[in-house]
Amino acid sequence: MTEILSVPAADARERSEIGRYLHWLQEERGLTFEAYGDLWRWSVTDLDGFWSSLWEYFGVRAHTPPTAVLADRSMPGARWFPGATLNYAEHAFGLPGDSDHTAVIAHSQTRPPIELTFGDLRDRVARARAGLVRLGVERGDRVVAYLPNIPETLVAFLATASLGAIWASCAPEFGPRSVVDRFAQLEPKILLTVAGYRYGDRDIDRRDEVQQIRAELPSLEHVVHVPYGEQTVAAAVSWTELLAEPGELEFDPVPFDHPLFVLFSSGTTGKPKAIVHRHGGILLEHMKNSALSWDLGPGDRMLWFSTTAWMLWNALVSALLVGASVVMIDGDPVHPDLRQQWRLAEQTGATLMGVSPGFLMTCRKEGVRPAEEFDLSRLRQLGAAGSPLPAEGFRWVVEQFGDRVLLNVGSGGTDVCSGILQGGPLQPVWAGEISGACLGVAARAYDADGKEIVGELGELVITEPMPSMPVGFWGDDDGSRYRAAYFTDYPGVWRHGDWVRFAPEGHCVVAGRSDATLNRGGVRLGTAEFYGVVEDLPEIDDSLVVHLEDAEGGNGELLLFVVARTELDDALRSKLARSLRGALSPRHVPDVIGAVPAIPRTKTGKKLEVPVKRILLGARPEEVASADALADPDALHAFVAYARGDERGEAR
Fold first, then answer.
1. Is 76 helix (H, G, I), strand (E, B) or coil?
2. What pLDDT does residue 581 have?
């Protein structure tokens, strides 16, 4: 039976943003909900009532009002708030009288810290907007950025959005091929870029990469150089020139479905999908998630390390929509040491700190004691996303912070640019499990026949539309690629691509990507549970597991690859096998355990189980993964060698 580590505080309704929303529902709509589960069920059955309540509660500023909430519930093709015109950027500058309040705190390894008030932000965005107009940017034009997580990126994004132009960004550590594969699809008019940056104690020169990128984007009319480090970009408009003249901070009203930004899939195989998100959908979804799950409001500060290529960057800057401040971090997040993110949380007074599960597990393994070593008295929530967090990680956080800090583990994705499963102030925390589905997200587990299942692993699906589901993919004029990506297996139902198990109470476990699920002798096993056991051992830093099926229906071959701190000898192999057998089952004991120098991951940290499987089945690396999409392209070499038979290790 799953262990409950914490329950909502007795005064959670009085102290939390979701509690204030519940009070508003009672006062304004005459609706009373005793528990989070009751509120969630209403949010996914009365879609008109729920989403219209968020529109009113958060005070969405519409230039023309909608004629309905949900005119068509079809998926794909749901029509939200028809007739409404608005602008996302109009909501990002705090409440009246907030001009002197802090909006942005930025720390990097390239230059000293920067702090901007809401007034500063308004002035810079107005200037950037005027500068973009001088460069000929109009509604529908694409503005792209090869920029790190710094205030200039936020300013350019909001200025772009204010004009009804469309934004996309890549982090400057991406190689030219990866950037062009993304940006060329959009035919951008403007490129904003840095010439270099500092990562830890290394200076990185990107001038050659910038030159290659601009040479392969023939649609570019202007390049804007953002000063960052010592290098400069030749033949470019300077950031100072762009912001040289003051302007009025105006917001072009656009339809609810007007494109706001384009996010890209990881691009491990083929060109990345260009996922188009809309002004209204992102505005409502991010207001909801920031306030009702992450408990952010005026006076709060959100710190979550992210590059500009990850959807969490968009979620981070959206904290401004509810009047909170954002902490922007650029550089090596563990420089000069593992404690740097905790140190920054202390220095910036973060009330919500987001980290990766891998970071938490490493801190646990290395004996870091954040609550004792740092003044984190303002911290109320610790968010974790990107991969599953084992139960031991949950317990470690509770040991460090007690019930003063809520551990909010979530799972979502670029596709909806938000959380799908998450916790919050009114939900219990279960060891090793996510607290439940987010409000407004009709998340279920389906079997292969499209029937809902509880207590068993199944496909994560969403059975009702959400406003933040994409408009579609850029360039997919007939919608065929979009439908194929999410709606082929279960017509009219969104298939997300994760493998999940829901408990009757609603809490759940994400067991990894469904296309990487291990099918051993007809029994499907999730990869996440392997990693939770293996990476908890002090001798193991990282791991990856794949299953090679037997064409005749047998058990196939289960292979576990580890990055070990010590020699992978027979004793360590035996320990791994015993740990998996004892913690999980005999079916989880690998046939082969091999050592590799590194586990291949995307730049956002996702393990490449499927590409590795394809390499082991004979595919060439260039056929399964774009090198520019990988954090360490050399990490695939060991698997190529293994496939050739150069290295073999037997499980004991």
1. coil
2. 85
